[in-house]
């Protein structure tokens, strides 16, 4: 898909990957609605973006990305202020670090934001895209969705779900004019890594070290650039860390060996 003159919605866009994606879309000639649960931050981000891209190119909606009402508002505002929505980037995510001690509220939040927000957005967007014969859905998952996340069962399971949903979307609608890409990075310099996974919770430090020790921590702008290239190529899997492909291959070829290696890695992390 050529993004010039298209309209994109990006959730989780007050900072990090989401804000970087919005900036890349604008640079490529698109118009963007940014959304985030943090009202002040998302409107501040929208203001900065509009100063760069010009009036009439940016809109903002504050709210929970998993809430059907917020999703409906995002679409309505985008259509009113920018035009019909061509691209939806389900980027909002949570990453609380916990093992089996994770309570029902932690599970519920992870499932809502990391998975069901994607499902609910697709329910809204897909019927119109099918009528028009085109549209694009981008899921921000994680390398944890292809591999696992040491120290955070909720993050690992819900990101696996996000990858599975994106795959299902691609299989079901990919030959009907709807493109689907799934973003699966390792460490990215965002609040999710620097704050959420390092909080004072069981496994928090271990989870953060597992990510930062596995490969380079990328700038969000680098990741956003990869996403725009993938959309232009209509490529499903986006791996800003190329080593993830090799890790996934090893996992598929010999799961037992891969699990033993991950056990060793987890023990090493726990000792430091």
Automatic annotation (TrEMBL):
Report whether Oxidoreductase shows up as a keyword of the record.
Answer: yes
Report the domain of life of the source organism.
Bacteria
Alphabetical keyword list: Oxidoreductase
- Pfam families associated with the record: adh_short
Q: Which InterPro entries match?
A: NAD(P)-bd_dom_sf, Sc_DH/Rdtase_CS, SDR_fam
Q: Which Gene3D superfamilies match?
A: NAD(P)-binding Rossmann-like Domain (3.40.50.720)
User: For this protein, what is any one GO molecular function term?
Assistant: oxidoreductase activity
In terms of PANTHER family, this protein maps to: 5-KETO-D-GLUCONATE 5-REDUCTASE, ALCOHOL DEHYDROGENASE, PUTATIVE (AFU_ORTHOLOGUE AFUA_3G03445)-RELATED
Return the similarity comment: Belongs to the short-chain dehydrogenases/reductases (SDR) family.
Entry protein name: Dehydrogenase
